[in-house]
Amino acid sequence: MSWFDRMLGRGGRQPPPVPPATGDVRHALPLGIRIGGRIQFDRTMYQVAPGAMSAELPAGHQGVACYGHIDLGDGYAMHRFYLEDDAYLQVMTCGELIESIKAFVFHDTVNPPTKAHFQQFVTSHPHLGAQEIDYAGRRWQRVTSPEGGARIPPMAFDEVLYRGTPPRRDDDLTHYAMVYGRQVEELAREEFLLVTGEDSGPNDFCVTYAIGLDLTEADLDIT
Length: 223
Prior knowledge:
The chain has helices at about 5-10, 45-50, 115-125; strands at about 40, 60-75, 75-85, 85-95, 95-110, 130-135, 140, 155-165, 170-185, 190-200, 205-215, 220. The protein contains three helices and twelve strands.
């Protein structure tokens, strides 16, 4: 499969029926999610092992405020549904197959003072390529190409953002991303740290840290 198992998508299965494309979005959206819809996460894990995770998904029904589409090539796509409370649901697809479902919470944003400082972060900062890093009081291991100790360059991909009803193309940005992970022994699952340099113009750039985990459809209530 490669391309980092298409950004951590593994396996494949048939998705539920989805509505037709509307507005500027020229493809169907997975899991029947739409801008203006709502998503609620199962948060039982946080009750089972309080404090074991580095961040928690938001409680209650979260409105879908924005949709992001990333074309990875060869029929693979990443769909991001940005929620009201600094979180997003990420669905990886290959054609009509759902490869993986993940949810992330934005944990921190760094604003380099100049575009040159941003570019320096992307090309040389250890958080975008070192084999292991320390963040939020935890030790994280690089998931992308874990073999070898040398720093590797971040993955680069473009995202198109849609807002409104019907959805209209609103913005474009380029991501420079690296994924790290750690085992949460108390819950027997893996937690992910996604570090991303986001470039959407000569004067609009930042570095975001998002913490997330794998989910299944059973963990979601979509309305």
